[in-house]
Every structure is written in C-alpha cells, then in structure tokens.
C-alpha cells in the first residue's frame, strides 16, 4: 500500500477489481479553497486504454509489485515470441498480444525490458529508438531533396514506415519505437 503522495511515473497501481494501471503522469494540486488532490493519467497495463483519474491527497492506493527484467528477443516459435532473461538465461515465450506493437521493431538479439506480474508477462518496453535496415523502398528520383515529401519503406522486420525521398534500399535508419517515426540515417 502507498498513498497518492508517493506516486511516481511508471508505478503500477491495482485499482477497481484488481485491474493494473500504470501511472503515466501525475500532478499534485492545492487549490485556494478545499483539500489538495492529485490529478493522474493512468494507462491500463493490459488493454492500453488511458484514463484521467483524480484522487484526494493522501488517499491509500494499492501498488502492484511488477518485476521489470532485462531480456533479449531470441526467436519466434509459432506465433509466440521467445525472450531470454539476460541474468538467468531462462527462456520465456510471450504471446503476440503482450508483445503488441513492439513486434514491428524486434530483431533477434534485440534487448527489451519485460514487465512481469505474478509470473505472467504484462508488457514489453523497447529502447526509445532502434536501428533497422531498409529492406525495400522505391528508388529516389533525381531532384528529390530532404525537404520533400515521404515514401513508404519496408524495414527488415517487415514493418512499413514513411521515410524521406532520399533514403534508399539497404540504408540503416533510426526509428522511434513509440511513434514509428523515421529519426534519421545511421552512419556506419
């Protein structure tokens, strides 16, 4: 148990009926009249739904002990993604539902953080950006400039993103894992 005064970003709370919610943002508010309160933005750990919730200051909230472990993506087994714990070398198969959008950026050997609650994987966190090679994109045309538009490009993971017109097949680029945006070329 903790109180709303102890909230931190990333903390996981157990609310209504045992649902797990991760704290995305919080703000302590002390109005001129009345009691202080805490305004929060919470994300449902399983569904990904984000809600705004307000608590009175000092309200007791139940925290969930979520174990975040450094793991490495090993291989795909059927539809499951198999991760290896980098400390114990234990293998853990994780369903595509839990992996979610992270699957778009996973290559064998990719490091990730796996959040585990009561032995079950909840979600996967990747680094903010990853470096991937472009498997295919239409060739650029003479006169294409960096200020121009964008074109679709298929990454080595099979995921498609928009890249500037001057990018060519075989180039290594940096991609934001949260938004799927092109961040720049990687000079090798």
Count of helix runs: 1
Which class of secondary structure composition applies to the elements?
A: mainly beta
Order of helices and strands: EEEEEEEEEHEEEEEEE
Shape: globular
With strands numbered from the N-terminus, the spatial order across the biggest sheet is: 1-6-2-3-4-5
Question: Number of DSSP strands?
Answer: 16
GO molecular function: translation elongation factor activity
Family: Belongs to the elongation factor P family.
Domain Elongation factor P C-terminal: 130-185
Domain Translation elongation factor P/YeiP central: 68-122
Describe this protein's structure.
- This protein is mostly beta strands and 188 residues long.
- It has one helix at 96-99, and strands at residues 2-3, 12-15, 19-29, 37-44, 50-56, 60-63, 67-77, 80-85, 91-94, 111-117, 120-125, 129-137, 150-155, 160-164, 172-176, 182-185.
- The strands form 3 sheets. Strands 1-6-2-3-4-5 form a 6-stranded antiparallel beta sheet, with no helix packed on it.
- Strand 8 (80-85) and strand 9 form a beta hairpin.
- It is globular.
- The N and C termini lie far apart (49 Å).
């Amino acid at each position: 148990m903790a109180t709303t005064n102890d909230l931190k970003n990333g903390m996981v709370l157990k609310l209504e009926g045992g649902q797990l919610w991760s704290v995305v943002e919080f703000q302590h508010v002390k109005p001129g009249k009345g009691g202080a309160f805490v305004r929060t933005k919470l994300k449902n750990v399983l569904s990904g739904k984000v809600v705004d919730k307000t608590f009175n200051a000092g309200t007791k909230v139940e925290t969930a002990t979520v174990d975040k472990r450094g793991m490495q993506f090993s291989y795909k087994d059927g539809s499951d993604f198999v991760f290896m714990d980098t400390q114990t070398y234990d293998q853990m198969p994780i369903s595509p539902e839990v992996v979610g959008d992270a699957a778009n950026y996973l290559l064998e050997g990719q490091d990730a953080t796996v959040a585990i609650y009561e032995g079950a994987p909840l979600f996967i966190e990747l680094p903010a950006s990853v470096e991937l090679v472009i498997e295919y994109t239409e060739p650029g045309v003479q006169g294409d400039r960096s200020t121009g538009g964008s074109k679709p490009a298929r990454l080595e993971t099979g995921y498609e993103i928009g890249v500037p017109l001057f990018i060519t097949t075989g180039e290594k680029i940096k991609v934001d894992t949260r938004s799927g945006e092109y961040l720049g070329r990687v000079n090798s």
